[in-house]
Design a protein that fits this description.
Layout: E1 2-5, E2 10-13, E3 21-26, H1 37-55, E4 59-64, H2 71-80, H3 84-101, H4 118-130, E5 134-137, E6 140-143, H5 159-163, E7 180-185, E8 200-202, H6 204-216, E9 220-226, H7 230-245, E10 250-256, E11 259-261, E12 264-265, H8 276-280, H9 285-292, E13 301-302, H10 305-330, H11 339-357, H12 362-381, H13 386-403, H14 412-430, H15 434-446, E14 449-454, E15 457-462
Parallel strand pairs: 3-4, 3-9, 9-10, 11-13
Antiparallel strand pairs: 1-2, 5-6, 6-7, 7-8, 11-12, 14-15
Helix pairs in contact: 1-13, 2-3, 4-6, 6-7, 9-10, 10-12, 10-13, 11-12, 11-13, 12-13, 14-15
Organism: Aedoeadaptatus acetigenes
Subcellular location: Cytoplasm
Main location: cytoplasm
């Protein structure tokens, strides 16, 4: 399997630190508001990578943090005359609702809150101060970027340019314009914790480094997030972590591309963003998940209503194939295999895996799934054999599960009632009571159910 490493700017063969074990950290949301579609993309993309690792037999530790102390939370709490902790609790709850809609929690995910790690944060900062890589100033503690080896190696930023102050606001308390805050001194009305340098709270960059180190170790396999986090966030994580430990922080850095709306980057500042909750009012969030996987993760993807409608239509086709197979497999079918069809199924499975092994190319992988669906329909049309159809169904659902789709089920009570009527109709036809059989067909049609009599049995679908 090859992954594009943002650090080396090339695809590299993936080799985990420990055999069949992967440690992944993905920067999670700042929980002061609903997440938007742009926030959802890395969550869906790297959840899919985690799923694929599991499919390939890896044990995966996957951390997606909550930033629950930050200027944005403090401002929201002031606006609502409540506490930062109440704001965080509320929006973590809202996040979990959206995350479940996006099918992110089929597998275990570790969701630490930054405020749960204050003690290890203080130890981390203290270690940097002892090394002479961090210094207190006016109640704050800053990291000295001149003490970091190869600062700017991830983003390609030139430290001389940063030192000039061209991109960083000059602060007189800093030794260098590019130095960043590790610990923020207490301000009136803000939450604070005691520290050797005075009461205060952690800086944003510090939080992720400490949670990754504490939960996954000093060196991890993969660190991921949106490409907008490369600088300064990920760059600063690398600088402080590697300066403290003297070890590589992450062996692979993965970054997803941005989402656009009419060709313009989706962002809150431009007012052209959609929250996941707003999308859920129009589409099932499974459609959004599938849409976010329809392009290669490093490419930009343009969000629109038409694109979502097209995605929904494609997803419905896949559900149709799934449901058709399930109905056939419940009925009486000829046992046996079709060697040519079995070979086609294996071919598409291998194409799917080749796509996923090629830097998580979900666009190509979904194409393989649609081709498999077409082959299954062709096989069914010519009269399928049960063993081959069962094998195809198992493969189809395995690959769909890697993508995190095709998990929805209609109301089982309604399905049972439909199946009962079909059994009654079957008995009526066997007894040559065609009037009753036709009446059941008409009753089902009035309920939005179309039936089709085939040599494998009676099939039904919603219309």
């Amino acid at each position: 399997m090859k992954l594009f490493n943002s650090m080396t700017r090339q695809k590299e063969e993936f080799k985990s630190l420990e055999d069949k074990k992967v440690r992944m950290y993905n920067c999670g949301p700042t929980v002061y508001n609903f997440i938007h579609v742009g926030n959802a993309r890395p969550l869906v993309v790297f959840d899919t990578l985690r799923r694929y690792f599991i499919y390939k037999g890896y044990d995966v530790d996957f951390v997606v943090n909550f930033t629950d102390i930050d200027d944005k939370l403090i401002n929201r709490a002031k606006d609502e005359n409540t506490t930062v902790f109440d704001v965080a609790d509320r929006y973590i709850g809202e996040f979990m609702q959206d995350a479940n809609g996006l099918n992110l929690y089929t597998y275990k995910t570790i969701n630490p809150r930054a405020t749960e790690f204050i003690e290890p944060m203080l130890e981390f900062v203290g270690g940097l101060v002892e090394k002479g890589a961090a210094y207190p100033a006016d109640g704050d503690v800053y990291f000295d970027i001149t003490k970091a080896k190869d600062y700017g190696k991830l983003s390609g930023k030139n430290i001389d340019e940063l030192q000039s102050g061209a991109r960083i606001e000059v602060n007189s308390a800093k030794k260098n314009p590019g130095d960043f805050v590790l610990w923020k001194g207490k301000k009136e009305g803000e939450p604070f914790w005691a520290s050797p340098w005075g009461d205060g709270r952690p800086g944003w960059h510090l939080e992720c480094s400490v949670m990754a180190k504490t939960l996954l170790g000093e060196t991890i396999d993969i660190h991921s997030g949106g490409e907008d986090l490369q600088f300064p966030h990920h760059e600063n994580e690398i600088a402080q972590s590697e300066t403290l430990t003297g070890k590589t922080f992450a062996n692979y850095w993965l970054h997803n591309g941005m989402i656009t709306v009419d060709g313009t980057k989706m962002s809150k500042s431009l007012g052209n963003f959609f929250t996941v909750r707003e999308v859920a009012n129009v589409f099932d969030l499974e459609v959004l998940r599938f849409f976010l996987l329809s392009a290669h993760y490093r490419s930009p993807i343009n969000y629109s209503y038409d694109a979502m409608e097209q995605t929904k239509a494609g997803l419905d086709r896949l559900y149709g194939v799934r449901d058709h197979m399930e109905q056939l497999l419940k009925g009486d079918m000829e046992a046996g295999n079709d060697a040519d069809f079995d070979a086609e199924v294996q071919k598409e499975k291998e194409e799917f895996m080749a796509a996923m092994d090629d830097d998580l190319n979900t666009a190509r992988a979904t194409g393989a799934l649609f081709t498999l669906a077409r082959d299954i329909n062709t096989f069914i049309a010519k009269g399928p054999k049960k063993d081959s159809l069962q094998s195809a169904y198992d493969t189809f659902m395995e690959l769909a599960d890697v993508l995190g789709i095709l998990y929805r089920r209609e109301e089982t009570d309604e399905d049972s009632a439909i199946e009962a009527l079909l059994e009654e109709r079957k008995a009526a036809r066997a007894n040559k009571d065609f009037a009753r059989a036709d009446a059941i067909r008409d009753e089902l049609f009035e309920k939005g159910i179309a039936i089709e009599d085939t040599r494998e049995g009676t099939l039904w679908k919603r219309i």
